[in-house]
Amino acid sequence: MEGRKRTVGWGVLALWVILIALAAPLAGKLGDVQRDRAVDYLPASADSTQVAKITEQLPGGDSTDLVLVYHRDGGLSAADKATAAREVERVAAEHPLTSPPVPVPSEDGSTLLYAVSSTEPGTDEAARDAFVLDVRETVSGEVGGPGALATDASEVYNSLDGPLLYTTVAVVAILLIVIYRSPFLWLVPLVVAGVADYLSMAVTYALHQGFDISVSGQSTGVMTILVFGAGTDYALLLVSRYREELRRTERPYDAMVTALRGCGPAVLASSGTVALGMLCLLAADMNSSRGMGPTAAVGVLCALVAMTTLLPALLVVLGRRVFWPLIPAYGSAPKAARRSLFAAMGSSAGRRPLAVLVAGAAALAALALGVLNLPGALKQEDSFTSTPEAVAAMKTLAAAYPEMGTQPITVVAPTDAAPGALRTALATDGVAKAERGRSGGGWTEISVVASDPPQSAAETATIRELRTALGDGVYVGGPSAEQLDMTDTNAGDRNIVVPLVIVVVLLVLIVLLRSLVAPLLLVAAVVAVWGAALGIGGFVFESLFGFEGTDPGLALLSFVFLVALGVDYGIFLMHRMREECLNGSEPGAAALTALRTTGGVIASAGLVLAATFGVLVNMPMVQLAELGFVIAVGVLLDTFLVRTYLVTSASVLLGRKVWWPGPLAKRPAPNGGSPKAGTSTDGSPADGSSAEGSSSDGSSAGGSSTGDSGSERAPVRV
Fold first, then answer.
1. Collapsed DSSP state (helix, strand, coil) of residue 456
2. Fewer CB within 10 Å, N side or C side of the chain?
3. How far is 566 from 578, CA to CA, in rounded Å?
4. Neighbouring-strand partners of residue 433
5. How far apart are the first and last CA of the chain?
6. Strand extents, DSSP E, 6-110
C-alpha cells in the first residue's frame, strides 16, 4: 500500500515533466510578443493611438523620428559644424530619410539640431533599434527624439528579465533558509516556484495568441514577482501544516493528504480572491492595465496549481529527511516555545482595543496625507532611474532652445480638410510652427512644433487646445500627446476599476465568511493600507529616491494589488477566527487566539511577499520602482499593523456583531461547547506558547521549522 502511495507522487512528478516539456516552446516565445511602446499601452480610442495607426498607412509606413544634437559649451566652432554636416550627410546616404535634414542653430550658437525621420524600420521594433544604433555609431553628437527614447526604453525592459528573476530567487532563498533553518527544505518550494513561473510564461503567450491580450515588460515582471511571492506564501502554509501532520501520522503520504485537506480550502479561497481581483483590470480602458489583469491572474493560478500538486509530490517522495536537521519524527512533540510576539500583540490589542484602534487609524490617516505630496505626472524622459542618451539629448535641447519645443506634435487630418487644419494649427496659441507632411490613403500628416518644452504644462495646454480647435475627425498625437492620453485614461479607469474591485472582493468575502460586517472590516482595512502606503510614497519618492514624477497608473495598479493581496491574509485570520467561534469561543477570545496561532506564518508570508515586490525598487524603470515600493510597504503595514492590531482590536470591540447578520452574531455555535480552559480549538495553549498550534488554514504559530523527536530547538519567532 505504501509503495502504491509513493508511486502516486512519482506519477505527479512525471506529469509535470510532460507539462513543462509541452510548455517550453511557448514560454520561449513570450519575449517576442512583448511590446513596450507608449502607443501599445494606450486604448484604441485614444487620439494618439489613431495617429500611430494612420501614419503606419502613409507612404513609407510608420516613421522613426530622431533628433541629432551637436553641442559645445561656449559655442560650436567651424570645424564642429563641418563635422556635423559630414556625419548627417553620411546618415542620409546610408538610410532613406523622409526629407533632407536641415540644421537649426540655437540663439547662443552652442547647439545644432538636425531632425531626422526615416520610414526604413517601419513598425518592426528590432529594425528600429538597429537603425537608432547605426545612427549613434555614425554621429559624434547625441541622438535623441521619440525613436531613440523608444529604443532606450526597449533596451531597459529587455534587460529586466535576468536581473529581476535572479534577484527575486536570491531574496526568496535567503528568507526561506531563515524561516526553515534547513539546508535542503528551502530549495524545494523555490524550485517549484521557478517551474510555476515557466508555466505562467507559456500560458500567457497562449492567451496572447488566442485572445490578443497586451504583453509588456511591466506585466511580465509583475507576473514573476507574483509567482514567487504568492507561491512561496502558499508553500509556507502547506509545509507548516504538513510538518505538524508528520508528528501525528506515520506515513508522509497520509500526512500530506491531511495537510492538503486542512489548508487547501483557505489557500484556494485566498488565491481565487486574488485572481478575481486582478481580473477586474479587464474593465480598464488602458491597454497595458487590461493586459496586466489576466497576466497577473495567470501567475497566481499557476503558483496555486504548482504548490498544491508538484510541491506535495516532491515532499512525499523526499520523505521526512527533507526537514534535516530538524526532522519531525512520528509521535514526537515540540518543546514549549517562548511567548510569541503575536501573543504579546494580541494581549495589548485585547486590553485596550479602543485605544489601539483609534491610534492605529490615526497613524494610517496621517501617513495617507503624503498623497498630497506626490510629484506630478511622470514625464517620458524621467521614466529611467539612470540617464540614457536620448534623455541627455532632450535635456540639452531644452536648455539650448527655451523658445521652442523640440519634440513635434503629429496631427493627421483627412486630405481634403488638411489646408484648413494647417491654418487652424498655425493660429492656435502655443504653436511655434506647423508644416504639411506626407499624404496617402485619404489622410495627410501635419507636423506641429509647440513653443514650450515637451510635456510641460504649457505644451499640454497647447495639445488640448489643438484637439478642441481641430474638432472631430482630426487626430492629435505624438509622444507628448501619448503621455497626456495615458494620464487621462488612467484617471477614467480608476473610476471604474476601483469600485469594481471593492464590490467583487466584498462579495467573495461575504460568501466565504457568511457575514457582512467582517468583510466590510477587511475591505476598509486594506483600503486604508493602500492610502497609507501611497502616502509614504508621496513623502519619499522625490526627497529620497529623486523621482521627478509619479506614474499615472500607480494609484490604480497599487490599489488592485494591495486590496487583493491584503484580503488574502485577512482570509487566513478571519477563517481561523470563525472556526474558533463555531467551536464555542467568544468573538473577542477567538480574535486573540486566531492572531496568536496564525500570526507567525502570516508574518513569514508577508515578509516574503514584501521582499519580492521590494526587488522592483532596484529596477531601472521608475514605474516599476514606484509600484514595487508602494506594494511592499503596504504589505508590511498590513501584516504588522492592520492585521495584528486594527482588525483584531475592532473584532474585540464588535464582539458577535462582527459576524452579523449570520447565525454566529446571535448565538453560540450549535455544539454549545467551549474549548477547555487555557487551550485553543486545536488543543494548543491559548497563550500562544506552542509553536505548532494547528489551524484550518494550515498555519502554525511560529511559522518556522521545528526540531526532531522532541529534541528540537524552540522555533524562531517572527
1. coil
2. N
3. 18
4. 449
5. 40
6. 64-71, 103-105
In order of 114, 403, 475, 548, 627, the CA distances from 406 in angstroms are 10, 10, 20, 20, 30
Residues of the chain with pLDDT under 50: 336-337, 669-718
3-state SS assignment for residue 633: helix
Dihedral angle computed from the Cα positions of residues 131, 135, 136 and 140, in that order, rounded to the nearest 10 degrees: 180
- The contacts of residue 20 (CB under 8 Å, 6+ apart) are 195, 198, 199
* Contacts with 49 (C-beta within 8 Å, 6 or more apart), sequence order: 39, 42, 43, 477, 485
Query: Residue 520 in contact with residue 503, Cβ under 8 Å?
Result: no
Q: What is the pLDDT of residues 424-469, one digit of tens each?
A: 999 999 998 898 988 999 999 999 989 888 888 899 999 999 999 9
Distance CA 402, CA 106 (A): 9
Q: Taking the mean position of all CA atoms in its chain, how far away is CA 326?
A: 36
**DSSP of 237-271, one letter per residue?**
HHHHHHHHHHHH-SSHHHHHHHHHHHHHHHHHHHH
Catalogue the E-assigned strands of 243-396.
Answer: none
Strand partners, 111: 71
Q: What is the pLDDT of residue 374?
A: 92
Q: Note whether 508 and 276 are within 8 A (CB).
A: yes
Question: Which residue(s) pair with 434 in the sheet?
Answer: 448
Q: From 317, 261, 217, 267, select the one nearest 6 (Cα to Cα).
A: 317
pTM score, whole prediction? 0.82
The C-alpha atoms of residue 651 and residue 353 are separated, in whole angstroms, by 9
Predicted pLDDT at 140: 93
DSSP annotation of 307: I
Specify the amino acid at residue 3. Answer: G
DSSP 102-166: -EEE-TTSSEEEEEEEE-SSTT-HHHHHHHHHHHHHH-SSEEESHHHHHHHHHHHHHTTHHHHHH
